């Protein structure tokens, strides 16, 4: 029984990390159909900014979280203005936005990655933070991993509440269902659209900042996270904040148990297996109505 | 209107002199090309263990006046190109460097897989290469006369590890290995070596590249309580298992990881106190000889980072051998090949001699982090410090 609990807890924590990674892309792709394939690169940028602030200016990585979010948010507004505004404005349908933004995302991927290579080099980087174990009911977990898990749950619930119960959330959902209709009822999509995109980048930045406390970082770390994020938001249902969290946790649980009872080498097989199973049973994802 | 015309002529003449004069005074440079990963997943390894050594070597040789090629001083011109961690790009680039760019020599790419891919070109165009980051019996079995791997082979490394474990009374081992050529070859070498010493493997598990969580496996190992943990790991995973073993309180008498343990960033990321007592693959540290200290300091001065304790010294030794070969036999690539193959070389990592395509002089070694330095603890005749066994508690 102890082992089962330990496996479950470990899986949930890993799943929390997946959920954090996916949240930003869920806003951009899930809600706005902007297929930001460079999501992982902005996550990487958040990780580097945090690492840089911590190792150069001794800034506490936790205190830097809001700064990472703010910087990436502003960058998001700029990227939106430069790259995506035109696409969104000129595209005749959501499908076209998806296809065109995919190409722009590829370009951004190279830009951001190479900018980081130029600034900080290709070496592995990292710092040690909150690596002490925390003991809960006899099982031991890393404090930094617990922190990521806590943030994942907290941020997901906050986002869920925001989208469901506030006027802003209603406006965002309206904009997704019908951009023109939203404008007709007085929603300023010209402001809301870039803000939601920027929020997506800010979440990516925070995820990167959190991950830099757990893992070693390098400029090429981003791409696998983009894939993970895509799996998680597809599992949960595009645009669903609860789905994102549950999708991440489910993936973490399946991997933890699978890796224990089968073999860690089956990790990929397991994650794609879950994805395929969900897609067959519920093609719209777990939480999409 | 005559005056400006005259001025123009004067300027042109001065320009002509300025461009021709150095060419007359100096020999043409020795052009050495290479493709290496500056971006993509291999970049971290390549930029830690390999390319800095190429640049440092060319810098130092040029500062001293250049290579002595048959009595003439010639500067080195390095032509390095990013292969983006793509085998295809690397092969195409190297072939271009050898053919249309007519490089005098080429330097190897980074990593076992990349070197495996470049080997046919070396034989086809007759370019000798000393590879500091390629290891595997499969490479040697190719019997490529122009390819000189200078790293220790998996069976050599694992035999040394097993000898050390046996000498320290280790009876049981739990092992993980990365599901890739490097991991597979090393785990089978490890199994054979441990069997020969009568050491039991309680459990072994493979894991995929890019794994983000190994807590489940480490927890299981913890309950088995082995004398030694052996991780045949790659750099990001080396960090991962160290961090998670610490968090889970899995602290066997011997804790060993493979690639990446020798990287200075391993100590810097995990913390000097955390890695205290952790063992891993390596070959060298700056205490090995006075020349080692000179190399170490030059590397730090040039790049503001320390060389790692495995690939870097091998890369540097390779450059030393290449330089000696050129200064001995000139730029005839066949003659350079023969010189490399048939000479015992004096290098940063000690004597190096190839027999049947394998560096048979450098022994397998075990190193251990002690107070911020990766100390050689096995074999005894290479040791720079006494081993700390059992490993202290995680801090």
Write the layout of secondary structure elements.
The complex is a heterodimer of chains A (289) and B (395).
Chain A: H1 2-32, H2 39-57, H3 61-90, H4 94-120, E1 133-136, E2 139-142, H5 143-165, H6 167-177, H7 179-184, H8 189-214, H9 222-236, H10 241-261, H11 267-281
Antiparallel strand pairs in A: 1-2
Helix pairs in contact in A: 1-5, 1-8, 1-9, 1-10, 2-3, 2-4, 2-8, 2-9, 3-4, 3-8, 5-6, 5-8, 5-10, 9-10, 9-11, 10-11
Chain B: H1 2-25, E1 30-36, H2 43-49, H3 51-63, E2 67-69, E3 72-74, E4 76-82, H4 87-98, E5 105-106, H5 112-125, E6 129-131, H6 137-141, E7 147-149, H7 154-167, E8 172-178, H8 181-196, E9 200-207, H9 215-224, E10 228-232, H10 235-248, E11 254-257, H11 264-270, H12 272-275, E12 279-280, H13 290-303, H14 311-329, H15 333-342, E13 345-347, E14 350-352, E15 354-355, E16 358-359, E17 366-370, E18 373-378
Parallel strand pairs in B: 1-4, 1-5, 6-7, 8-9, 8-10, 10-11, 11-12
Antiparallel strand pairs in B: 2-3, 12-17, 13-14, 15-16, 17-18
Describe the 3D structure.
The complex is a heterodimer of chains A (289) and B (395). With 289 residues, chain A is an all-alpha fold. Chain A has a single domain, classed as ABC transporter involved in vitamin B12 uptake, BtuC (Orthogonal Bundle). Helix content of chain A is 78%, strand content 3%. Chain A has helices at residues 2-32, 39-57, 61-90, 94-120, 143-165, 167-177, 179-184, 189-214, 222-236, 241-261, 267-281, and strands at residues 133-136, 139-142. A two-stranded antiparallel sheet of chain A has the order 1-2. Chain A is globular. With 395 residues, chain B is an alpha/beta fold. A seven-stranded mixed β-sheet of chain B has the order 9-8-10-11-12-17-18, with helices on both faces. In chain B, α3 packs across α14, α4 packs parallel to α5 (112-125) and α9 crosses α10. The longest helix of chain B has 24 residues, at 2-25. Chain B is elongated. The model of chain B has no long low-confidence stretch (mean pLDDT 93). The interface between A and B is large, with 42 and 46 residues.
